[in-house]
Amino acid sequence: GFEEQLVGVSLEQPVDVKVTFPEDYQAEELKGKEAVFKCVIHKIEKKELPELDDDFAKDVSEFDTLEEYKKEIKDNLEKKKADTAKTEKENAVVDKAIENATMEIPEAMVKTQVNQMIDDFARRIQSQGLTMDQYMQFTGSTMETMQEQMRPQAMKRIQSRLVLEKVAEVENIQISDEKLDEELTKLAEMYKMELDKFKEMIDDYQKDQMKKDLAVQEAVTLMADSAKEVEAKAEEA
């Protein structure tokens, strides 16, 4: 592993750490890839674990007691588990819809989606202090190989979007201004901005896109709920 290769290395001594990303790594373009990280250890610190008591809970959370903090953690884990199960169910329903759909996707649309995914990936690694040139050097990849690796995922994203937009159209899913305001309020809170100032930053085109995104989300929920009803009727039969 990464850490094991740093054991015994002296301070300020350069060392190459070789790693292979697992096949189930979250970034599609990194799955199974080998990489070399050039590292230098500047400082070694020892972690000292604090006592798990009420004082600890007060220091790391908004709660006054350890029991309250534990309950919050448990509730969050249960919510995360439920959210994961919901997402997996929705993904399965959308995948099935894609299988049953017939569509022709223009090459230009695929290229646009691939380039957007590469731009998103570049921003993610840049936030970690890595440039695209460095990444390609470490992994031995090129822009062309990255585009080819991302193509299947780009196709699936486009197919999912087209299917869900069609469902939203057929089911006449309309997003009200009130619903949009709710979403804008959530985003303003997330970015810790005043709602009025946040709204000033969002133009009409962005609002229309947000409404389309919300309609797609409702289409996913509608399909998942319909699948549950079918399963329930099948169990009753």
TrEMBL record:
Gene3D superfamilies hit by this protein: 3.10.50.40, Trigger factor, C-terminal domain
Cellular component terms (Gene Ontology): cytoplasm
InterPro entries in UniProt: PPIase_dom_sf (IPR046357), Trig_fac (IPR005215), Trigger_fac_C (IPR008880), Trigger_fac_C_sf (IPR037041), Trigger_fact/SurA_dom_sf (IPR027304)
Keywords noted in UniProt: Cell cycle, Cell division, Coiled coil, Isomerase, Rotamase
Residues of the Trigger factor C-terminal domain: 65-222
Pfam families on file: Trigger_C
Coiled coil: 63-90
Principal cellular location given in the protein's record: cytoplasm
Domain of life: Bacteria
GO BP annotations, alphabetical order: cell division; protein folding; protein transport
Protein name per the record: Trigger factor
Lineage start: Bacteria, Bacillati, Bacillota, Clostridia, Lachnospirales
